[in-house]
Structures are given as structure tokens and as C-alpha cells.
Amino acid sequence: MEGQPVKLPRVYSVVLLNKTHRSKIKTGGFDSKEEAKDMLIKISEKYSKEIVKYNPQVSERTRSRR
User: Fold this and answer.
1) What letter does residue 51 receive in the DSSP assignment?
2) Exposure string (b/e) for 20-57, b if CB count within 10 Å is 16 or more?
3) pTM greater than 0.85 (yes/no)
């Protein structure tokens, strides 16, 4: 059927972030939220890192363009 939207499967990603959240390293993609959360907890414990939500800082230059 032409013109019909295609439903893509949802993928949950776990990424490592730098302090400003500008640089990211994807560690994996998972089919379920539970799998992603399990991996997130393992990585956090192994490397003693805090779990945070992605929230990049907006620079003054970017802010002035808005």
C-alpha cells in the first residue's frame, strides 16, 4: 500500500555522556525498556557513574538564534 505510514519498532538506547551531554557513546540498543535499564544499572555500578537523563546545555550562541 503506497502512502501508508510504516510503523518502526521502538529501540531503547543506553549512551555514555560527557559533562555537557554534547558527546555521546552509544553502548547498545534494546527491544525492551527493562533490558535497557538492566544494562544501564550494570554499567553505572561497574564504572561508579551516576545515572542521568539526557539534558544538553544550550550555549548562548544557540539561545540567541531561537
Assistant:
1) -
2) eeeeeeeeeebeeeeebeeebeeeeeeeeeeeeeeeee
3) no
Residue 3 lies in a domain: no
Q: Is there a domain that residue 31 lies in? A: yes
Residue 4 lies in a domain: no
Q: Is the separation of the CB atoms in 11 and 4 below 8 Å?
A: no
Taking 70 as the threshold, does the pLDDT of residue 1 lie above it? no
* Residue 5: inside a domain: no
Strand partners, 26: 15
Q: What does the pLDDT read at residue 58?
A: 79
Q: Quote the number of domains for the chain.
A: 1
Q: How far is C-alpha 63 from the chain's CA centre?
A: 22
